[in-house]
Structure formats: C-alpha cells, structure tokens
C-alpha cells in the first residue's frame, strides 16, 4: 500500500508514510515472534507469502477501499493471534499468553486508528487531502 500511495500518479505521501510505518511495525512483530520462539527452543518455519490481486491490489478504487482492506487484514491477523492465544491457554502456557497479550492490544489500537481514518474520510471529500497532510 505504501508503494501505491507514493507513486507519482497517486501522490498521497502522508498515506504512503502511514502504510510504510505500519509495514515496518509488522516486520518488528515478526522479529519479536522469532526471538520468543527461539528463546523457548522452538523452530521458526518461514513460508512464502502468496500475493494476488485480491490481497495485494496494484490499484485501489478509492482510499476508503484501501483502508477497508487494511482493516480486514488487521482483523484477520487478530483472529490468528486469538487462535494461538486460545491454544496457549489450552496448553496452560502462561508465558505464551502473556507474550500474545501485547500483540492483541496492538491489533485493537491499529484497527481503531484505521477506523478513525475511514470515518474521517467519509465525513468530507476534502478530508483526503487534509488527512494526507496530517499523516506526513
């Protein structure tokens, strides 16, 4: 999304910055998961991330569509973390549950921030420009 919004023909650099920072945060989360698994003598297994036009479009019909997709992805990740948390609970793994609690709260915060952006976009057509400036 950051690459799309930073394209010269789109030129919404505030949105590009926002999505780049979000992507960097996700990379940091992956690093933390790796460290946690390694500390517990686990084995990290990396898999290919398969992208398609539905999960990673090259063009968005509107900024709202991009935000809606970002919200859907955040909610999907939240469900995955909740599933892992539930499994940790079933295994009576308090350390894993505690580790995951921070990520669950971050998911709540990220989703809420995206919903605020979506709401502000819906209020006024000039909100796109103003939000883009604010996100810089």
From TrEMBL:
Transmembrane segments: none
GO CC terms: cytoplasm
Binding site for Fe cation: 26, 29, 74, 107
EC assignment: 1.16.3.1
Keywords attached to this entry: Iron, Iron storage, Metal-binding, Oxidoreductase
Catalytic activity, as annotated: 4 Fe(2+) + O2 + 4 H(+) = 4 Fe(3+) + 2 H2O
Enzyme class, broadest EC rank: oxidoreductase
GO biological process: intracellular iron ion homeostasis; iron ion transport
InterPro entries cross-referenced by the UniProt entry: Ferritin, Ferritin-like, Ferritin-like_diiron, Ferritin-like_SF, Ferritin_DPS_dom
Main function: Stores iron in a soluble, non-toxic, readily available form. Important for iron homeostasis. Iron is taken up in the ferrous form and deposited as ferric hydroxides after oxidation. Stores iron in a soluble, non-toxic, readily available form. Important for iron homeostasis. Has ferroxidase activity. Iron is taken up in the ferrous form and deposited as ferric hydroxides after oxidation.
Name of the protein described by the UniProt record: Ferritin
Species of the source: Fasciola gigantica (Giant liver fluke)
């Amino acid at each position: 999304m950051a690459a799309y919004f930073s394209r010269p023909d789109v030129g919404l650099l505030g949105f590009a910055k926002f999505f780049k920072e979000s992507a960097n945060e996700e990379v940091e989360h992956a690093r933390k998961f790796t460290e946690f698994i390694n500390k517990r003598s686990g084995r990290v297994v990396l898999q290919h991330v398969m992208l398609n036009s539905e999960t990673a479009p090259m063009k968005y019909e509107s900024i709202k569509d991009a935000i809606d997709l970002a919200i859907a992805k955040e909610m999907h990740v939240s469900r995955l973390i909740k599933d892992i948390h539930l499994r940790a609970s079933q295994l009576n793994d308090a350390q894993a549950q505690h580790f995951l609690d921070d990520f669950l709260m971050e998911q709540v915060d990220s989703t809420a921030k995206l919903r605020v952006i979506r709401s502000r976009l819906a209020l006024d057509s000039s909100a796109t420009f103003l939000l883009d400036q604010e996100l810089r």
